[in-house]
Amino acid sequence: MEDLSFYELLGIPETVSFVEIKQAYKQLARKYHPDVSPPGRVEEYTQKFIMVQEAYETLSDPDRRAVYDRNMAMGIHFAFSSRNQEKMEKGEWRGQWQTQLSELRKRSMYKESGNNTSWAARMRRERKQSSS
To answer: What's the pLDDT score for residue 1?
Structure first.
């Protein structure tokens, strides 16, 4: 089931409207909801429910759907990739943030060392040192 596109998973054509996506989602969500699963198939139903939920989240958002459709048109098929893509984006964001933070710390240490300060900053420091 993991090789299915989101459209195939929801049992809808690629040209459907938001209303039809929502109808298909509701039908499958009721079918695979973990609370209504047979006792021995809770794990299986939970996995299917999660997949249906992700397909709906992707196809019901116009921006996500456009990216998904574009990737499919290029022959790139990442089944259930929107959450992974968000995680990757968050991971990239975190890496960029850590790089920026590191750079700011370096600048701060460099400025505190007294090397590369503005004329006004040097004057304030000298005035402060002479008044102490």
So the answer is: 45
The predicted model scores a pTM of 0.57
Q: Which residue has the tokens 């460099």?
A: 110
State the Cα–Cα distance between residues 59 and 10, nearest whole angstrom.
10
Domains delineated in the chain: 6-131 (1.10.287.110)
| Tens of pLDDT, residues 34-81 | 888 888 898 899 889 988 999 999 999 999 999 888 888 776 665 554
